[in-house]
Design brief:
globular; mainly beta; single chain; about 0% helix; 11 strands; four-stranded antiparallel β-sheet; about 120 residues
Length: about 120
């Protein structure tokens, strides 16, 4: 099983990025999938999650980030708008079987740097 995150990079404050997470070895439509992030010196934190039809966001990104999935492409996305310097972090995608609570599969992370 592999989750391959991509799309990170350097962007100015107020800019946008779209992250992708391509899954192989599992069929994503059977999973709840999420994005987490970790900034230097901080613990990993929840960003957003998408289930069968529901989504949820951390308060810090609500209204700026949009999570989506394309099960036909076995891919998870995170559209990030109005980026702030405090969004700088390594972003990880993760998957858990529905009706379970543990994220069993994790991607390798993609670095997002928001700086002028």
């Amino acid at each position: 099983v592999q989750l391959q995150a991509s799309g990170g990079g350097l962007v100015q404050p107020g800019g946008s990025l779209r992250l992708s997470c391509l899954a192989s070895g599992i069929t994503l439509r059977y999973y709840t999938i999420a994005w987490f992030r970790q900034s230097p010196g901080k613990e990993r934190e929840f960003v957003s999650v998408i289930g069968w039809k529901s989504t949820d966001y951390s308060d810090s990104v609500k209204g700026r980030f949009t999570i989506s999935r394309d099960d036909a492409k076995n891919t998870l996305y995170l559209q990030m708008n109005s980026l702030k310097p405090e969004d700088t972090a390594i972003y990880y995608c993760a998957a858990r079987r529905r009706a379970t609570s543990i994220y069993r599969y994790w991607g390798q992370g993609t670095l997002v740097t928001v700086s002028s």
